[in-house]
Amino acid sequence: MNGGGTLDTIQEEGTVVLNRKRTLSFDEKKAAEAAFQGLPIDEAWSVSAQAIYFGILAHTQGRNIVEEGVLEASVF
After folding, report:
1. DSSP character for 45?
2. CA distance 18 to 6
3. I need a labelling partner for 26 at 20 to 30 A (CA). Which of 5, 35, 37, 53 fits?
4. β-pair type (9-12, 15-18)
5. Residue 17 — φ and ψ, nearest 5°?
6. SS3 55
7. pLDDT, tens digit (0-9, with 9 covering 90-100), for 61-74
């Protein structure tokens, strides 16, 4: 990890990752919900919310994993 991090993000090997020691904001939660349901991005979301959205999409490949039954337990 290099010294470019803030309270909200951590720089790790040239990649910005969210600091996992804080509660998600409202728009970050909405972005996560949308990504897991395969819904489109809302460009009004913050940069960190959009990063969450694209990070989840990268792992789910844009599938609606909630309805596919891949997600076994509710996150919220």
Report:
1. S
2. 10
3. 5
4. antiparallel
5. -120, 150
6. helix
7. 777 766 665 545 55
